[in-house]
Amino acid sequence: MIELIIYVGKKVLRKRRAVATYGSSIKIKGKRYYIIGKDIFAKKANF
Length: 47
Known about the structure:
This protein has no helices and five strands. The protein is mainly beta. The chain has one domain. The strands form two sheets. A three-stranded antiparallel sheet has the order 3-4-5, with no helix packed on it. A hairpin with a 2-residue loop joins strand 4 and strand 5. This is S-layer protein C-terminal domain-containing protein.
């Protein structure tokens, strides 16, 4: 099984791992994102 890994600064987001989000998703240029930190966003499709 290949694991999806997204690098965000020094943090690594792995598929199927719990990540705290702040509120519901927001739309940026037609795509939906979750806020996961100050100026850090993760695409909703990756959750």
